Amino acid sequence: MKGTVLRILSGFITVPAIWKPPAKQFMREAAYQAGIASSDVPEQLLIALEPEAASVYCRERKMREFPPVREEMPILLVFSSKGGTLDVTAHEILTNGNIKEIHQVTGGPYGGTKVDDQFVSLLERFFGTAVVGTFRVSCPAEWLELMNEFEMKKRGRRAFDGETTRIRIPRTFATLVSEHGGPDLARRFARCTTDDVQFIRNEYFCLGSTAMRKVISASF
After folding, report:
1. Which InterPro entries does the record match to this protein (predicted)?
2. Do the beta carbons of residue 57 and residue 25 sit within 8 Å?
3. SS3 at position 203
4. How many angstroms separate the CA atoms of 95 and 175, rounded?
């Protein structure tokens, strides 16, 4: 019903641990406007830090799913990696079950989207900023298809196992590049001098293990 506030006993919203108080307050105000909680009863909404939530989640999982933990040293080193940020902190599990932060959280804007940005920069370097920009605007569905393809491939182990990562390029993108750079996309690509990168059959953008590791490490 319009204007009705959802009444809940307690609500939780997780935020990156590196966020400053103004950013956390912005999230709280957004939750109020969304009807998740009411500003009249602020205690019904808790803003939790993502590493804390991850730590609690791990404790609730079956312990056999994790490496053995020495009971006399109940310390958790928590890495919380998301789309835009990476948080790292250390927690101690107290005897009463509570969690104590034993080292100030650190981190930064080093999430998975930074790797995506490096991949886009690589595309722009080889095919031209104007061509990539035109493709993103004129073919949004195919652009999403390309980025989803890269999303799956960047999570794999091929680069760290010394193998080549093959990323399928949409036909519409290959056609667009050909129109801007000549009839043969392979010849256009061959003029590039970057090592460990190949374009095969006007269809696959192939990054050798060295090139793929550079894309990933350059985001840090």
Report:
1. ATPase_NBD
2. no
3. coil
4. 64
Cβ atoms within 10 Å of 192's Cβ, excluding its own? 13
The model carries a pTM of 0.63
The residue behind tokens 């999403």 is 144
Give the count of beta carbons closer than 10 Å to the beta carbon of residue 50. Answer: 22
Q: Say which residues have a Cβ less than 8 Å from residue 76's Cβ, sequence separation at least 6.
A: 55, 58, 90, 91, 92, 93
pLDDT, tens only, 116-144: 888 999 888 888 888 899 999 999 999 99
DSSP tag of 41? S
Q: Is the distance from CB of 24 to CB of 15 less than 8 angstroms?
A: yes
80/64 Cα distance (integer angstroms): 21
As to burial, measured by CB atoms within 10 angstroms (0-12 exposed, 13-18 middle, 19+ buried), residue 110 is middle
Tell me phi and psi for residue 23, to 5 degrees. -70, -40
Written as one letter, the residue type at 209 is S
**Contacts of 217 by beta carbon, 8 Å cutoff, 6+ apart:** none
